[in-house]
Design goal:
Layout lengths: L1 H52 L2 E5 L3 E5 L6 H12 L8 E4 L15 H6 L7 E5 L6
Parallel strand pairs: 1-4
Antiparallel strand pairs: 1-2, 3-4
């Protein structure tokens, strides 16, 4: 009888060791998930900080205005808001462009967000201009 009891205890011990190993594996996975979640939180905080630093847009035609938009606003949305802020009427031949020493047309990039346009080097900063046809001879 003592031999059977010892085998039963041995089986229970083997099962307990196996459960411990499984628990350790689960704990390791949980720690990996926690580390991943912490990285994701840090990345999200960084995105929020970056967006809040870059959510001011300058647009100038003859008049200037500054207004805030989200980093995920498209160039089209910024252009549309520019007219409202400047209290200007849109003209058919107006061009939305960068406001730099050598302005670059943004007309082919209006679907990009500010973030995408910056990341793809379409824009260098958040300063824009509206070029209007001035007429001529």
């Amino acid at each position: 009888m003592a031999i059977e009891e010892n085998r039963t205890n041995s089986g229970s011990l083997d099962e307990a060791v196996e459960h411990l190993k499984e628990a350790e594996v689960h704990l390791e996975h949980a720690r990996e998930d926690e580390a991943k979640a912490e990285r994701e939180v840090k990345e999200a905080i960084h995105e929020i900080e970056e967006a809040s630093q870059h959510d001011e847009v300058n647009v100038n035609e003859l008049e200037k205005t500054t207004f805030k938009v989200k980093i995920h606003a498209t160039l089209q949305q910024v252009w549309d808001k520019s007219y409202k802020e400047l209290k200007l009427e849109r003209k058919p031949k107006d061009v939305f462009q960068t406001a730099s020493a050598q302005p670059k047309s943004l007309m082919e990039h209006l679907q990009l967000t500010l973030e995408q346009a910056r990341d793809r080097k379409v824009i260098e900063n958040f300063h824009f201009g509206i070029a209007s046809e001035t007429g001529g001879a």
